[in-house]
Design a protein that fits this description.
With about 260 residues, the protein is of the alpha/beta class. Helices cover about 25% and strands about 25% of the residues. It has one domain: Metallo-dependent phosphatases (Purple Acid Phosphatase, chain A, domain 2), CATH 3.60.21. Strands 1, 2, 3, 10, 11 and 12 form a six-stranded mixed sheet that branches. The protein has a six-stranded mixed sheet with strand order 4-5-6-7-9-8, with helices on one face. It binds fe (ii) ion (2 copies). One fe (ii) ion (FE2) binds next to loops.
């Protein structure tokens, strides 16, 4: 089973990249299922039913999120009504929405997807390690193909959770930093890992935002409006091929594809 995961989709440029590039990526790589992190899809901050719909219409099957979850108040509609949308799992019991799902593909084994958030240099959620361990145990009753979006800042936290889950899940892919790392590998137990998938959107920027106001904020320490940048749009992510019998990863390949019309 070939899984394409798309790193954080940032604003309109990110959504456009997915709409324009995904059909060919899907075809050329014989992708079976597409998962995308959509936490920055609405103007760079949060997600709305409208931006989620655009991402689903482009061919994405499941959308994950992260610390920008609550930035748009309409997200509550997604949390309550959209079964293909995930929030980080490690919120307190009773939080709207869900942190994992099982997706049934027409002719193949079901795939479980889990979204979890780190705590180092991040808002303080419940312990991602205990939550992940317990949820994986539960999901493995249903399928051994499990994909994890680990939304976190610290590389050590992402590596540690992936090492803890090695052999129990098919892949642990990091998101949140918006910088694609070059450490893709398959651990001894069969779990594919990449510290960060990068982001999908304008790369002539500071992680998706206009450069000048971000620099000005660092210089002056005064608040600035951070508009989504416009140029050098790239779709970033990763393709993981999973053995359906064992749930172990067979290969992991990074994706970083420029939007042709925008290539400079
Ligand atoms: Fe984030
Ligand atoms: Fe993000």
């Amino acid at each position: 089973m070939k899984i394409l995961f798309i790193g954080d989709i940032v604003g309109e440029p990110g959504r456009r990249a997915v709409t324009e590039l995904l059909p060919r990526l899907r075809r050329q790589n014989e992708i079976d299922v597409v998962i995308a992190n959509g936490e920055n899809s609405a103007g760079g901050s949060g997600i709305t039913p409208k931006t989620a719909e655009e991402i689903f219409a482009a061919g994405v099957d499941i959308i994950t999120s992260g610390d920008h979850l609550w930035d748009q108040k309409e997200v509550i509609t997604l949390l309550q009504n959209e079964p293909r949308f995930l929030r980080p799992l490690n919120y307190p019991q009773g939080t709207p929405g869900r942190g994992s799902l099982v997706h049934q593909l027409s002719s193949q084994a079901p795939i479980a997807v889990m979204n979890i958030q780190g705590r180092t240099f991040m808002p303080d959620l419940e312990n991602p390690f205990t939550f992940a361990r317990n949820e994986v145990e539960r999901l493995r009753q249903k399928t051994n193909i499990i994909f994890v979006d680990m939304h976190a800042e610290a590389t050590s936290e992402k590596i540690a959770i992936a090492r803890m889950l090695d052999g129990q899940v098919s892949a642990v892919i990091g998101t949140h930093t918006h910088v694609q790392t070059a450490d893709e590998q398959i651990f001894p137990g069969g779990t594919a890992f990449l510290c960060d998938a990068g982001f999908t959107g304008p790369h002539e920027s500071v992680i998706g935002r206009e450069i000048e106001p971000v620099v000005k904020r660092f210089l002056t320490l005064q608040p600035q409006r951070f508009a989504v940048a416009e140029n050098r749009i790239i779709l970033q992510g990763v393709i993981v091929d999973v053995d359906e019998m064992t749930g172990h990863a067979k290969s992991i390949v990074r994706v970083s594809q420029p939007l042709a019309a925008d290539a400079k």
